[in-house]
Write a structure and sequence with these properties.
heterodimer, A: 444 residues, D-Maltodextrin-Binding Protein, domain 2, 2 domains, five-stranded mixed sheet, 18 helices, B: 313 residues, extended
Chain lengths: 444, 313
Amino acid sequence: MRCIARRSLLKLSGAGAVAAGAGGLAGILAAGRAPVFAQGTTLHWLKFVDFVPVSDQLIKGKLKEDCRKALGIGLEVETINGDGVQARITSAIQAKSGPDILMAVSNWAQLYADSLADVSDIADARGNAEGGYFDTAKAVANDGKRWLAMPFTILGVLLVNRTSWFAEEGVKADNFPKTWEDFRAVGKKMKAKGRPFGQTLAHAFGDGPAGWYPYLWSWGGKEVEADGKTVALNSKETVESVKFAVAMWKDAFDEGAMSWDDAGNNRAFLANTISSTSNGASIYLLARSKADTYSTETGKPLKDDCFHAPLPGGPAGQFSYHVPFSNLIPTYVADPKPAKEFLRWFHSKDVYDQWFTSQQGFSVGSTKVWEDDPVWKVDPVMAPFRTAAESGRFAGYAGPAGRAAAETISKFIIVDMYAKAVQGAAPEDAVKWAHAELVKIYAG
Amino acid sequence: MTTIEAVAPRQYVRGPRRGPITRLLEDERKLALCLMLPTIVLLGLFIAYPFVKGIELSVTNTSVGVPGKFVGIENFKKIWTDDIFHIAVWNTCLYTFVTTVFKLVLGLWLALLLNRHFKGKAFMRAFILLPFIIPTVLSTFAWKWMFDPTFSVLNWMLFHLGIIHSRINWLGDPGLAMISVIIVNVWRGVPFYAISLLAGLQTISPELHEAAAIDGARAWARFRHVTWPLLLPVTLVIVLFSVIQTFADFQLVYVLTGGGPANATQLFATYAYQLGIGTGLLSQGAAISLAIFPILLLVVIVQLVYIRRAETL
């Protein structure tokens, strides 16, 4: 074991004190050592496997090394598949032991609010510096009193469409249907040619809510009033939305989607069996990265036959539902300071920019400043994602995105309301059923 | 004259000195306790503790990270009025009953076939076990592809055989989705029945069959009056295990349908997971899990009584 001489130790602590006193990265770099944390501080970060593999490689490689140099913190990044993350978080929080930082999706932060450290200082500082957060990012990570989690990013969800098939119907990106009526009319013609639209009505955790919640909002339907208590689902607007959905499903949609999981529409689009589906940019990015594998029925690369567009709107407007991610620091972490400093560092402009660029537009960022990033000029097909998050709302509207909203998502009440009607239940009965379920959920 | 030779008594040779542990273990009751101790510890840790913890959770309002307070039977009252729970109860009973009947009939049929002498018997017996050996999640993913609305090999086959003219929406139609999960469960469970029943069949003496044959009994009569009565106790134990496992089935439905469409395949376990993990309502999840208990207890008691009667006949 190497002995540390008393004089060396004094020198080292002196350098640290100077750096801390000088403050900022310049001081740290001048000292050549991390002043804040003892050498050997390690953070365990549990995160989802990224759809864009190069982003995880960046974090596990260059950013890990940069973090060690800048903060003196060793980063241990554990990536696991999405469907296993919530069980891991549940067990960690319940056992009060586990990773220092937990990546959460949707409004999970609200579920574990009592077990999360307050990150208002770092979240507010970043929000102020970057032009404010998108509503979706704030709704899921802030309970109105404090920031429960540090927003990480938002995955944009738009319709991905087949350019050549829509062109045959006289539809292009700039005259894409703005209303559900127009969308249904085009879809009817396309389905007749064996090119239906695709939208899951199954228990698909991401694509189910991302498709049906904004559809409900666009008709003026909502789960609950702004007080977060009065259930308001059973309304004329919701019933109308269900009636229209049943007809639209029959006219324009692929009935097989009744059983699609989150990958179902990806498979169908890549196999040229559907013409349009609501999804993240993953379909296009995969077609782009494997241009030789995915081709159209004419043999042309599929990537050259895609464009993105927002969901159509209804009588109450146009909305979207994007998928927000955030990072939680559990209260079981004895000293949350290193985790906070890491998140502050990771979300600093220079560092986050590297990660954001590696996403190639798959992520739209949590704050508005990223709308101006040069990444949106690289590929015109990805450009519509730039401002996608602006129309985003989250589950629980018009109330908060709290525990009841999470239970409603988890039980697929809204998705199943439409599914029941499509399966033959009277629209009024399907809405009544969903309303009754919401009343029980919101009663607590 | 008979002479009786005096036999000198054997000299008592003292054995090696026994330690206190050896002396302790010479007491059969204490030895039995020692031998059972590892099992008791394992059962206590992995069965009794979670069970007691489950009961404790179900009578509180615990959610993830928030220690709950005692609320009595409030959670059970909640699930009692929960429509999705009612659907899950019905689905679980239907799923368990139908799969058990099919697994028993097909398993018995397979066991009778495997009990015959034919070339490659050993290989075939090992091969039959494959569905049971492959991890459930893995095989269910393969089935998921076979039921996929776009890529279903089953639809492709039926279409090319001219049996169907449009695709079957296996997992999208509520009725067909339940049939699909039943098919996969039966496929996975039949080998367990077959191999277990085969073991039972092999304990039946061939002489009994020969005697029955000499008396003029035909194949069906031999099965009805010789094989079945002797196989019944084993069968009941297998059915008991199978019912318990099927009632608490999770992986298969979770992977195949996630309980959808519109809860058409929602089971106790998938719904408990949805509430306990998905929503963080641990106490309600525990209450749903425990709701299985009285039903299973009833099934187990009825079957054990029946097994005892069958054994004493």
